[in-house]
Write a structure and sequence with these properties.
Largest sheet: 6 strands, mixed
Strand content: 5-15%
Mean pLDDT: 89
Radius of gyration: 20 Å
Bound molecules: zinc ion
């Protein structure tokens, strides 16, 4: 990704589309009890092995949920309380916790997790219960207070991490990064803006912001505000979660093997859309550099759009656009196609995909995006693309 990509969001669900969805929820994820759990991407009948412990949280210490271990959590290389003080947020309630691979800071308020918000919502809530949290499960949603909601992100983020780690067969601490991934979840835009302004210095923070602090031990940060997601996408915990899944996919791809080169844009955005859409296809996120976000692929049903594009030969040659390095350079259509190609590769060629990931940061070989494809898949980008087109014409027909 770019040094600072704008983890943008888009009003992915126009009002008309939202109304259509409400009338026909069949395209949404499984609902209620019995929803599917996450599986190991290299062994699809084996449940994913998710590491949720040990974790540390001052409120859980006070509640005796975890062992009393006094500690001062550091984020941005200093005590979190010092960051809060520097930002002048003494009156804002906040909480910071540490999980096996993440440090999560939050000023989010309480919220309801609807079972229909994600394929994995019910299973995640069960995991939360197993960690010792108490809350009641209603007929179609669970209300979480601000504290428990942060731990819901612990479950979500560690599940996403476990999936990417299993997909790529990477078992290094933090996938190879020096320190855990830092996730800053702000309730409102003003505090997100102040944080980014002071510590990252980006100009466009109207979406989420990612940053790689490359000084050793290096780490990556993602900061976003729920109020922006509410205004631009939709209200509620599910829309924010999808926004986080998209952007954390970028952090993991860039953290993989302590990667410091640019990742091909189609890989970045393909993964971002893969990880958000497997939760729920309603809320899509786009990263764009400047100006207006993409206007294509704003409806949830991407398979039907892609099928039409491919059948009518409206797609542009993959050999050309696979060379793009900045996510913001991808058109809306290329965002959609990247998602489908990545999903197809994850489901059918995880080992070769990993071979491509491993070659990406090999500075001696210094392969270009097209050469990476040739190296990993043993064919030119357009040959791989042709195989994908045949898959689309067969599998997306009638969707
Ligand atoms: Zn806690
Ligand atoms: Zn993105």
């Amino acid at each position: 990704m770019t040094r600072m990509a704008i983890g943008g969001i888009v009003a992915a669900v126009a009002l008309a589309a939202a109304a259509a969805l409400a009338a026909a929820p069949a395209t949404g994820p499984a609902q209620g009890k019995g929803a599917v759990d996450d599986m190991n991407p290299r062994a699809p009948t084996t449940p994913l092995n998710i590491t949720l412990e040990p974790f540390w949280c001052p409120l859980c210490v006070a509640d005796k949920r975890i062992k009393a271990e006094p500690r001062e959590l550091t984020m941005m290389r200093k005590p979190v309380a010092a960051v809060v003080e520097q930002l002048g947020l003494k009156k804002t309630p906040w909480l910071a916790i540490e999980t096996p691979h993440f440090k999560i800071f939050s000023t989010l308020e309480d919220s309801s997790v609807k079972y229909a918000d994600s394929v994995y919502a019910r299973a995640d809530l069960d995991r939360l219960k197993k960690l010792g949290f108490e809350f009641s499960l209603g007929p179609d949603s669970a209300k979480l207070d601000a504290h428990v909601r942060v731990h819901m992100y612990q479950v979500r983020l560690e599940r996403q991490y476990a999936h990417f780690s299993a997909l790529t067969g990477n078992t290094k601490p933090n996938l190879g990064m020096g320190l855990p991934y830092e996730i800053w979840l702000w309730n409102d835009y003003t505090t997100h803006h102040e944080f980014v302004d002071r510590y990252v210095g980006g100009k466009n923070d109207k979406g989420g912001v990612q940053w790689h602090f490359t000084e050793k031990p290096n780490f990556q940060v993602f900061s976003c505000a729920e109020s922006i997601v509410t205004a631009q996408v939709a209200k509620g915990d599910g829309a924010l979660a999808n926004h986080v899944f998209h952007n954390v996919a970028h952090l993991l791809a860039d953290g993989y093997n302590n990667y410091t080169r640019e990742t091909p844009a189609w890989v970045e955005e393909g993964l971002g859309h893969y990880y958000e859409r497997r939760e729920n296809p309603r809320w899509n996120n786009f990263c764009w550099a400047e100006g207006k976000p993409p206007t294509d692929f704003t409806k949830p049903d991407w398979e039907a759009i892609i099928f039409t594009i491919v059948r009518r030969d409206k797609d542009t040659p993959f050999a050309t656009w696979c060379e793009k390095l900045q996510p913001g350079e991808l058109s809306g259509i290329e965002n959609g196609l990247s998602w489908s190609i990545m999903k197809w590769l994850i489901e059918t060629e995880p080992l070769r995909l990993t071979k491509m990931f491993e070659a990406m940061h090999d500075l001696d070989r210094n392969l270009k995006p097209g050469e990476l494809i040739q190296d990993a898949f043993g064919c030119a980008p357009n040959v791989l693309y042709q195989r994908w087109r045949e898959y689309v014409l067969k599998e997306y027909a009638g969707k």
